[in-house]
Amino acid sequence: MKKVILLCTLAVLMFACKSTSATSTNTDRKSQVAMKGNWVISSVTYPGSQYIKVNTFQLADSECFIGSTWKFVSNNNKGEMALTKSGCVSFSSPITWFVNNDGQFILKILDAGEKARKVREGYILYLKNQTETSFQLIDKIDVGGKMTDVVYQFQKVN
Question: Which positions make up the signal peptide (predicted)?
């Protein structure tokens, strides 16, 4: 009898201590629907930007993302993004994305024709200051052992 109680207690503790990942929480449909449409990144800011360069999404310098275009489709969590700033590498790609109930924006950048479930790497950013015409995605990066916020300011394109 003591063994049964001990096993039950251990089982409860294991499930109670189970960590949740960003992808296992429910989606925030209201935030996702508000993001539907075409957007442009109007600015990228972070402390020390005059001294350090940030390689955003392992694609290009964060400055190259200013003016980039993004399309979010909320009913299937797909979309597109394109870097078009002169003097920077040109890049465009389909994306898949969603916002979870913890305010985390989950992004996967896909190759053409690639299924999202085959892509194992993605990015977790934080959705902040969302309005009908703007929102911010915040990435946390390590700069010299200190966590620093990189703020991507999005503006709606009509």
Answer: 1-24
Chain centre distance of CA 7: 40
Contacts of 75 (CB under 8 A, 6+ apart): 36
Residue 36 lies in a domain: yes
* pLDDT over threshold 90, residue 36: yes
CA–CA gap between residue 95 and residue 44 (Å, rounded): 20
Indicate the number of domains in the chain. 1
What number of CA atoms fall less than 13 Å from residue 62's CA on the CB side? 24
* Tokens of residue 146, six digits: 């200190």
Q: Please report which helix (H) or strand (E) contains residue 141, including its range.
A: strand 134-143
- Per the model's pLDDT, the better-predicted residue between 47 and 115 turns out to be 47
Q: Which domain does 90 fall in, by range? A: 25-156
What predicted TM-score, i.e. pTM, was given to this entire model? 0.79
- Residue 157, CA distances (Å) to 16, 31, 86, 116, 139 in order: 45, 17, 20, 26, 23
- With CA atoms as reference, report the closest residue to 114 among 96, 102, 138, 136: 96
Token readout for 57 is 């999404």
